[in-house]
Design brief:
Largest sheet: 8 strands, mixed
Structural class: mainly beta
Oligomer: single chain
Radius of gyration: 25 Å
Strand content: 35-45%
Shape: globular
Order of helices and strands: HEEEEEEEEEEEHEEEEEEEEEEEEE
Low-confidence stretches: 24-91, 108-113, 356-360
């Protein structure tokens, strides 16, 4: 066989291989589902802050907004609505709920919220509903959705398959948002899973009423069991008790510079402007006027991103003794970007216990609440 014939055969073979590879690539591109047509893909997947959140428009979906979704619902943690709908600067009430997909194997026991059983390293998946009922004179709202596993930030992915720790929503009057999601893989063990909805995230009104309303973050709580053998969770609690409790402030949760007024009042924090990259000290004040000790875990958010609370930990835990006031002191560095930033803390009570609606004893019920938002101005 001559050299020219061999070269011709080799060239032909390479051309056939190249055509086959290109054909495979084009087939995959053609057959890949178009995720941009899914309504939930219109949800924003960027971290706060952002200059211009992308708006989306969803038509009313009828009395059951989950009915048109390809996900069998097992639970809706329903109407969690703030009653101060006429508070200046506040957006009114909002429905915030979650329904899990069937493979989550939800179970109910003793009237408690559902517990979910997952296989090892399986992600949690479902649909979140955000439906505002705006106060008079307000026609749109900006929201941030976050998830936490045992107090630690948990990333979410929507139909765009991009994971993010903060999902931003822009909702107009008459609209509701349905957010199909999945989390990253959840490790073996028993966990507390929370979904948090922060409203009016661009509201920099320093007024007392607007600030106070920001403490009413909507938070849903669920138990998640992963694997067949569930190891016991271990939490190290420090004693935060410092003095006797303050009457009239039962189980209050305020974050400020450590100030307590002479009359026992605990004021909201209104700090002066800071330089960039400045150390800011703060104190979380928890009043326990109960006849029993209370256990808590705390996490901190700066611009809705979880930051270190103490000693490289994002979650710290402590006990406030019966009839005592508890204090947790720490600090953070201000952002380098000039402007208004937000600081807020999340408090997890009874972190090792069960979530429940009808448990009459707060001594054994896991619950979550947020502090009022503090505005941090960087010069």
């Amino acid at each position: 066989m001559s050299l020219n014939i061999k070269k011709t055969m080799l060239t032909t073979l390479l051309a056939i291989i190249l055509i086959a590879v290109l054909g495979t690539i084009l087939f995959n591109l053609w057959s890949k589902p178009d995720l941009t047509k899914d309504a939930s893909s219109q949800i924003i997947n960027s971290s706060y802050p952002t200059d211009t959140p992308v708006a989306f428009s969803l038509p009313p979906l009828g009395p059951d907004p989950f009915a048109q979704l390809n996900a069998t619902a097992v639970d809706l943690n329903g109407y969690i609505a703030d009653q101060r709908t006429n508070a200046p600067g506040y957006s009114g009430s909002v429905i915030f709920g979650m329904r899990a997909t069937p493979e989550m194997h939800s179970k109910f026991a003793d009237g408690s919220l559902p517990s979910f059983w997952l296989a090892d390293n399986q992600p949690f998946s479902g649909v979140l509903l955000v439906e505002p009922d705006f106060a008079a004179g307000k026609d749109e709202g900006h929201y941030a959705v976050k998830a936490a596993l045992d107090g630690k930030e948990l990333e979410l992915a929507t139909s765009s398959n991009n994971f993010t720790n903060t999902v931003l929503l822009h909702i107009k009057r008459g609209e509701r948002a349905l957010l199909s999601f999945r989390t990253t893989a959840i490790p073996e063990g028993k966990h507390n899973l929370n979904f948090m909805l922060f409203g009016d995230i661009y509201n920099n009104d320093p007024g007392f009423q607007a600030r106070l309303s920001s403490a009413d973050t909507n938070i849903t709580s669920y138990e998640v069991y992963v694997g067949t053998t569930i190891p016991a969770r271990k939490v190290a609690f420090r004693d935060w008790s410092v003095t006797s409790n303050l009457p009239g402030n039962d189980n209050s949760f305020i974050v400020n510079e450590g100030r307590i007024d002479a009359d026992g009042g605990i004021p909201l924090w209104t700090p002066s402007p800071f330089e960039a990259a400045k150390k800011v000290e703060y104190t979380a004040i928890i009043n326990n006027s109960s006849s029993y000790d209370r256990e808590y875990c705390l996490s901190a958010l700066l611009d809705y991103q979880q930051i270190e609370t103490q000693n490289n930990n994002v979650v710290v835990c402590g006990i406030v003794r019966a009839n005592h006031l508890g204090k947790f002191k720490s600090s953070f560095l201000t952002p380098t970007q000039p402007g208004i930033h937000t600081f807020q803390m999340i408090r997890f009570e009874n972190p090792l216990n069960k979530t429940s609606y009808n448990n009459t004893s707060p001594r054994t019920t896991f619950s979550v609440r947020s502090s009022a938002r503090t505005l941090i101005q960087v010069k």
